[in-house]
From TrEMBL:
One of its GO terms (molecular function) is S-adenosylmethionine-dependent methyltransferase activity. This is tRNA N(3)-methylcytidine methyltransferase. Keywords: Methyltransferase, Transferase. CDD domains: AdoMet_MTases. It comes from Trapa natans. S-adenosyl-L-methionine-dependent methyltransferase. The lineage of its organism: Eukaryota, Viridiplantae, Streptophyta, Embryophyta, Tracheophyta. The keyword Methyltransferase applies. It comes from the Eukaryota.
Length: 317
């Protein structure tokens, strides 16, 4: 199946910004955030995870999550990487990102984690049902909540994680290892898998409370091999979904809680850049993706904004 054509500029983000700033009804989105007794500003990671588990139980069909074939145009590295390339997808959901990657490149082994065991089961079912040659043998899902713990030791051992961090991060940064062990894909005669070529963060970082994002990115940094890339796509500032939130749904600055308890943050380029650079990465690409989506049923045009980014672990650390 061919990758869908990738477009990123139906309109200019700066023009949208001017429209939002001139609309008095939207100014509450940009006001300083002041927690109230009715807000959900207190972060309870276990409750956040439970909300996402329930979300995936309700919305796990292909009708809700469509296969993201556009990612192969957005990130051509996924289609062209060589033999034995290793990818970690953080927050894999029902497999809508994993499937097109596995389908289009037989050289890839894809490790995929999610905080929801239900999502992992749906992902495995989707991969199996696609009947793609060798895909089920190259897809390795595991349970991991990046806001609560680090990655399991078998993915990239603790000693190597600490070595990879020691030359680029402050000494007080602590990486907590996961508790999963004994995975059937681990190498018995070596300490680790040698690091990953890519980590994908596709609409995942925005679901983590803002104060936990830096720690999550440091953990991603730790499992990449030198020169490895994080491929990033997430909600952008002034996206249509952000502008639809009512004032009472704010739980932080540019951070909102949906009625089902799931969270979403809307990124500016500056915020993304700061988060990744502080975690030790080098910026390779960073831009807004601005797309007009038409709801034919309602006859409405919707302005969607996402952030596209590529960030590299320094080749020599």
């Amino acid at each position: 199946m061919e990758a869908e054509e990738y477009f990123s500029k139906d309109f200019e983000w700066e023009e949208l910004k001017r429209e939002v700033l001139s609309d008095p009804s939207l100014q509450h989105h940009l006001m300083p955030f002041e927690p109230s007794s009715s807000s959900s500003s207190v972060v309870l990671p276990e409750e956040e995870s439970n909300a996402w588990r329930k979300f995936h139980s309700r919305h796990h069909t292909g009708k809700f999550f469509k296969e993201r074939r556009y990612l192969l145009k957005e990130f051509p590295e996924l289609a062209s990487c060589g033999k034995d390339s290793l990818i970690l997808e953080v927050g894999c959901g029902n497999g809508s990102t994993a499937l097109p990657i596995l389908r289009n490149n037989e050289n890839i082994d894809l490790y995929a984690c999610d905080c929801s065991p239900e999502a992992l089961e749906y992902a495995k079912e989707m991969i199996d049902a696609a009947n793609v040659a060798s895909a089920r043998h190259r897809f390795h899902p595991f349970l991991c909540d990046l806001s609560l713990t680090g990655f399991p030791e078998w993915l990239f051992c603790v000693a190597c994680q600490k070595t990879s961090l020691s030359q680029s991060l402050p000494s007080d940064v602590n990486i907590v290892a996961g508790t999963l062990t004994g995975d059937r894909h681990s190498k018995e005669n070596s300490c680790c898998l040698g690091g990953l070529d890519f980590v994908t963060l596709i609409f995942t970082l925005s679901a983590i409370p803002f104060q936990m994002m830096s720690s999550a990115l440091v953990k991603c940094f730790s499992v990449l091999k030198p020169g490895g890339l994080v491929l990033f796509r997430d909600y952008g500032l002034f996206d249509m979904t952000m502008l639809r939130f009512e004032p009472g749904k704010r739980v932080g600055f540019l951070e909102y809680m949906r009625s089902d308890g799931t969270r979403s943050y809307f990124f500016s380029l500056e915020t993304v850049r700061d988060l990744f650079i502080q975690a030790g990465f080098i910026e390779v690409e960073l831009d807004y993706c601005c797309i007009k989506s038409v709801n034919r049923k309602k006859g409405k045009s919707m302005q969607r904004v996402w952030v596209h980014g590529k960030f590299q672990k320094p080749p020599h650390i």
